[in-house]
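Hey Z.,

So I finally got round to the zinc ion thing we talked about over coffee. Here's the setup:
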Amino acid sequence: MKTLLIILTIIISETIMPQNYDFEQNLYQSYDRYKEKSLTHRRFKHSDITSLIKKLKSKDGFTVKVVGKSVEGRELNLISIGLGKKKVFLWSQMHGDEPTATAALFDIFNFISDSANKKFCSALFGKVTLYFLPMVNPDGAERFKRRNYYDIDLNRDASRLQCPEAVILKTVFDSLKAEFGFNLHDQSHRYSVGNSFRTATISFLAPAYNYEKDLNDVRGKAVQLIGNMFQVLSQFIPGHIAKYSDEYEPRAFGDNFQKWGTSTILIESGGWKDDPEKQFIRKINFIALLSAFKSIAEESYSNASTEIYESIPFNDKYIFDVILRNLTSKSGKEKIKIDIGINLDEFEGPNEKKIYYRSQVDDLGDLSTFYAYKDCDFNGYEVERASVYQDKIFSLKELEDYDFNKLYSKGFSTILAKKLPEEKFTRLPINFALKNRIDTTVNIGEAANFILKKDGKVQYIVINGFLQKVEKNRKFEGNGLVIK
Ligand SMILES: [Zn+2]
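And the result:
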């Protein structure tokens, strides 16, 4: 009787217990072994990946084929591996400034080449053949911009096919007629999962193939596979997975590929706290894709209910880069309570690996329904406009060891300089101007430069959106503006 009970318990628990994710847990633990070490940030170029693709040619099982050239003559390579009947086609970075998945593809190539995974790979490649077209828009990647050399959004050229990169993507697609397709992108790090206070780190979509958003077998399989991937990723980034807008777009590749018979999945890499270079999100892509390959080989996606996909919240925009909350703002005799929502837009420095930011006040008032990467409560503090110090014109030399606290404590965020630094930004913890012509009020649309006072004393200063405590030897983690 006791034995029977034990057996029964085992049978029941195996049916109702959640799936076993040992494979994915292992990928998570051992990822560093596979991470392509030469890709360390988001601004890598075509030349950085061509040297890696060249190396693949000599590796067992890989086939590399040049399938065409970009407007500026950069080669697009199709990399394939496998002997299986099920074809899977993946293309990345058709938007030049969306490189997260491209990096993850090279991590996957390292995983496949590693002898430790021989058993897994031989089982996988008996069932599937993988085709990869990394960095579809190398000319855009060169400039770290979305569009191609003609300034055309390749993802709106699927039907008209005016750009060579779009023609290549369509030609490869037609030659493969793959069962599954993965359309790999990055989205704004400011997307939230619905109205939750969580960043949309990964957003999925099974693109619609008509305005009615009908579900046929082809799209249904994409929906099921996303259900699988959602469950897998929920172990690592619970609550941080959303669904991308599902409006039908007749000019986009994903929507058309779905229409033309390939079960197509869009993956968007969004934001994750303290991961500006998206290296953790790259790891999540690595796990998501390998897990999907396994699911396709084993056809385990066919067990996933479409309700999982339906339950995933849509992307929304409830996130700022910075929120300063509960400040008191004075205007004449009136005092009001405000939150300030600030966003920081990224700019490339002359050395491409160095990023600078330009701040903007994007909202004021009650922001209690929003969340921020840097979210600070300043209850009891007064906010005032910071101002321009005009009594002296500085030379750059004398600022080398300057004690900026003297300026901060008097409410100054900006100084005048004899000669401005050449760049538009400075690593110094101050803004530069030639004349006193910048407005530093707390107004929407303007750069965020203000002081936070308590008991009549300046305790914090905000320089170009970067919050700095006013105290000796405080390191500045941002950049100032050079206003020309
Ligand atoms: Zn994109």
